[in-house]
Specification:
The structure holds 2 protein chains of 2 kinds.
Chain A: H1 2-10, H2 14-29, E1 33-38, H3 44-52, E2 65-66, E3 75-79, H4 87-96, E4 102-106, H5 109-112, E5 134-136, H6 143-163, H7 178-190
Parallel strand pairs in A: 1-2, 1-3, 3-4, 4-5
Helix pairs in contact in A: 2-6, 3-6
Chain B: H1 6-14, E1 37-39, H2 49-53, E2 59-66, E3 69-77, H3 86-90, E4 96-98, E5 105-106, E6 113-121, H4 127-132, H5 135-140, H6 145-155, H7 160-171, E7 185-186, H8 196-200, E8 206-209, E9 214-217, H9 227-231, E10 237-238
Antiparallel strand pairs in B: 1-4, 2-3, 3-6, 7-10, 8-9
Classes of the chains: A alpha/beta, B alpha+beta.
């Protein structure tokens, strides 16, 4: 997909693309631009996302930048339980982000509805409508956890650019592994 | 001329940056941070109180009957959790704790799920004969005739129970003895039949009739969690 758009837009033969492919992927992978969408959030996650960009946690030091238009963005950060009012607007905004894009949900709300679940005005989890790449759990997540999620999203974005597969995923380094579970069991046994 | 901030500005030039260099330097959460849930199935008694109090409906309890008992599985969906600590607060046996691990990132659904299963033995023959023949346990324990009869009467029928309750204060004001299996016993002399214990019981194992003044315990459902004892305003429940 990415390869195609490059060729179409430049009108150059593929060898030129292949020549700079590595450079393009590496350089864009280092500075993904974020677009933040509030889908009916309680403002808790929004505050934490802003705090990630403050000098204390300074996401810009890793290359993230909050942009004002979805057309400039690589990663969309969605917070809130996706209300009836916001659903069409969220989907329209997400469609405007050029591919390859990465959609990250921040907080428990967009994953399941959390305490707003089954409300008359909540349209359920975001994954019902679009492919979500990374979920950051927490209510709200710690700024460091948001940083973890965004860094993983960046890697997934690079993977998408490399392979051209828009639903590519990477192994999650923070997932509870079987080895860790076994270690726990051993610890218990020792006790 | 006075330059009030010069000293500060110069000292700031040579001080460390205030930035938290997180991805390169590991950072730990505050000691009481409420992060990933840790569940110990060996401590759990399967009362279901956590399921009842969870605001986000993040906890599901499933019972699968197996030979000689049942397997009780608790499933915590961290993607639906508010990390409010209420489940851990209400857990009588401290089976649920919230750890300081905040790295809760998921690329698929299973990454955010904490589960645990424990086996619960079911005592089939013990309660039933006691319910049918209240005389048999009473005969075997002549010293504790009154309390044994009282406990047996609770399991019989609602028709017989009020009789026992009426007879008791007149007949024997002896203190009610706690049971061996850790299940609650009601002291009719103290009980005011307020139904608080019935409302608080996570298994709905207690049936209280305010008019007839009966307190009936469904022994099959009771897990002996102690919630009714804590809820009783008159300390009428003994465990």
């Amino acid at each position: 997909m990415f390869k195609k758009t490059i060729i179409e837009s430049t009108g150059k033969s593929p060898w030129l693309f292949h020549m700079f492919k590595k450079t393009i992927i590496e350089s864009t992978g280092k500075s993904p631009w974020l677009f933040h969408i509030n889908a009916g959030s309680c403002n808790g996650c929004d505050i934490e996302i802003v705090s990630v960009l403050t000098p204390r946690y300074d996401a810009e030091r890793v290359g993230f930048k909050l942009v004002g238009s979805p057309r400039h963005a690589d990663i969309a950060v969605v917070s809130g339980p996706v209300t009836k009012q916001s659903l069409p607007r969220v989907l329209r905004t997400l469609e405007q982000i050029p591919e390859p894009r990465c959609i990250v949900t921040c907080g428990s709300c967009p994953q399941s509805g959390n305490v707003f679940r089954d409300s008359y005005s909540v349209c359920g989890p975001l994954s019902k409508y679009v492919h979500v790449d990374v979920d950051i759990a927490g209510c709200t997540p710690k700024p460091q956890a948001i940083m973890d999620g965004l860094l993983l999203a960046t890697q997934i974005l690079a993977e998408k650019k490399k392979t051209g597969n828009m639903e590519a995923t990477l192994p999650n380094p923070y997932a509870p592994t079987e080895a860790a579970a076994e270690e726990k069991k051993e610890e218990k046994g020792e006790k | 001329m006075d330059f009030p901030f010069v000293k500060k500005a110069i000292s700031q030039l040579f001080s460390k940056p205030s930035c938290d260099m997180y991805p390169f330097v590991p950072s730990e959460a505050a000691p009481n941070y409420r992060g990933r849930i840790a569940y110990d199935p060996n401590k759990c008694i399967g009362c279901g109180m956590c399921v009842r109090v969870c605001a986000g409906k993040a906890i599901t309890l499933t019972r699968t009957p197996v030979e000689g008992g049942e397997n009780i599985t608790l499933r915590f969906d961290l993607g639906s959790c508010t990390f409010c600590n209420t489940c851990a607060d209400f857990c009588n046996d401290h089976a649920i704790t919230l750890t300081t691990d905040y790295h809760m990132i998921a690329t698929k659904e299973d990454d955010l799920i904490v589960t645990g299963t424990h086996f619960k033995e079911k005592k089939k023959p013990a309660p039933k004969p006691a319910a049918v023949k209240p005389a048999a346990p009473a005969a075997s324990k002549p010293a504790e005739t009154a309390p044994a009869a009282a406990t047996a009467a609770k399991t019989v029928t609602s028709a017989e129970a009020p009789k026992a309750a009426e007879e008791k204060p007149a007949e024997a004001p002896a203190p009610v003895q706690p049971r061996d299996d850790g299940k609650p016993v009601n002291d009719p002399s103290k009980c005011i039949y307020c139904t608080l214990c019935a409302k608080k019981c996570p298994q709905e194992a207690i049936v209280v009739d305010r008019k007839a003044k009966t307190w009936v315990l469904n022994e099959d459902d009771c897990v002996g969690c102690g919630t009714c004892q804590a809820a009783c305003p008159k300390d009428a429940i003994i465990m």
